[in-house]
Amino acid sequence: MFLPKYPDNPTPPPVHTHIPTDPAPARRALPSISIDQKTVTAVVVAGVVLTALLAAVAVTAISVAIAAVVLRSLLHEHNRR
């Protein structure tokens, strides 16, 4: 019922080779970008500052989580008595 219907006499695809008429255009070289020492220093300093901020946020989140667990434990023991 849902079988595919194939043609009775299938024709093979045409065989020919493609020969480009126009040669490929030459790639232009990228313009040279001069990177001085100040730029490299600024990028490195920005990376260090962002990494330090990320570490500070992570340490703060961990300390808040530990404080929450301790307070929860203390309140749970207080309500039990």
Describe the structure.
The protein has 81 residues and is mainly α. It is built from 1 helix and no strands. The protein is flat. The relative contact order is 0.04. The model has no long low-confidence stretch (mean pLDDT 83).
Order of helices and strands: H
- Note the main sheet: none
| Radius of gyration of CA atoms, rounded to a whole number | 35 Å
Strand content: under 5%
Shape: flat
Structural class: mainly alpha
Number of helices: 1
Query: What is the first-to-last residue Cα distance?
Result: 75 Å
What is the overall pLDDT average? 83
Number of strands: 0
Give the uncertain stretches in residue-range form: none
- Helix percentage range: 40-55%
Please sum up the structure shown.
This protein has 81 residues and is mainly alpha-helical. Helix content is 54%, strand content 0%.
Topology summary:
Elements: H1 37-80
Structural descriptors:
1 helix, flat, mainly alpha, 81 residues, 0% strand
